Amino acid sequence: MERRGWLQAAVLLCLLLLCSGREFKTEHTPIYNSTLARTLAEYTSAVYTADLTQLFTWTCERCGDLTEGFEVIELIVDVKNCLQAYVGFASDMNAAVVVFRGTQHTSIQNWIEDLFWKQLDLDYPGMPQAKVHSGFYSAYHNTTLRNGVVNGIQKAREVYGNIPIMVTGHSMGGAMASFCALDLVVNYGLNDVTLMTFGQPRIGNAVFASYFKCHLPNAIRVTNDHDIVPHLPPYYHYFPQKTYHHFPREVWVHTVGVGNIVYSIEQICDESGEDPNCSRSVSGNSVQDHIEYLGISMHGESPGTCRIVTADSTLQYKMDKDGSIVLSKKPGLSVDQLHSAHWANS
Ligand SMILES: *[C@@H]1O[C@H](CO)[C@@H](O)[C@H](O)[C@H]1NC(C)=O
Ligand SMILES: *[C@@H]1O[C@H](CO)[C@@H](O)[C@H](O)[C@H]1NC(C)=O
Ligand SMILES: *[C@@H]1O[C@H](CO)[C@@H](O)[C@H](O)[C@H]1NC(C)=O
Fold first, then answer.
1. CA distances, 108 to each of 62, 197, 304 (Å)
2. Can 334 be counted among the known catalytic residues?
3. Given this model, what pLDDT does residue 326 score?
């Protein structure tokens, strides 16, 4: 045990040394940009759209407002595992946006109950002593999504240059977004990757959280009031070697006030990842608070179904042997040109 503690200290020291010099924060960029949060929340809300044509052509009900004019480049549907993600180009931000959908579980209640028992059962590759939950890890790394997302980013960068990449997602989609952002930085060596998630669960232990902070020092996890999911899997502070630990930085959205003077604040939390004065200061007992963020619905249009809906018979797509679907187009093509375009992801 003595030796183990020493090793842990050495790992942390290494992390500290590695981390210094990677602090991107400057006087000009705030830690948290609430306009950006609203924008990314709208992108995240849209990924729950069931009709793939509407989503791909950015004509869905939730496509518009702050995300007006967005161009989807790659839409990936892993049918077997019921997962969905898209990559596209936001000209107003001059950035690629990558969005992961949360669970389509028939019962969100059951999915949440399962979260209590998730084990830290996988060593994160290349990060000694960093442990994560294999299910969250695999949902990104071991499905169609990783290839599709990387392809989409590559295509966007070929046409639009070395643009920044913003990765986002809600709930389980936030967990996948986190693994994606880390993957892009660590394994693909991409720079300028931003991560902002909404209502995500914990995904790894404290050592993992330290590595994470090191590679993605500006990551933001938005949590909403009493949302239960950020409280899971549980944090056991008296059991530091075994417990899950959030990476920083949390921004806790909650209401304050007395009587009828009530307003919502977005509280920027400390760098520990587990700020006791943020969401951890209240009990996570609300599912309702999980499915709406910043006034934007994060609810699936048709939760519990993984069926593919398209209103458009001219839509062509590529399907692999597992039944996964990729809708893909050349960046820069306008929506009007889409239907006559060559769709195949050649
Ligand atoms: C906040 O984000 C919005 C939307 O991306 C951007 O237009 C604005 O410049 C950002 N503000 C700051 C201070 O960075
Ligand atoms: C990924 O998938 C392969 C093949 O299905 C499997 O052998 C492997 O254990 C999976 N990895 C994880 C981390 O689940
Ligand atoms: C944060 O929480 C601690 C107790 O956990 C308390 O003593 C302290 O006053 C709080 N700080 C703020 C700024 O609320």
1. 21, 18, 9
2. no
3. 86
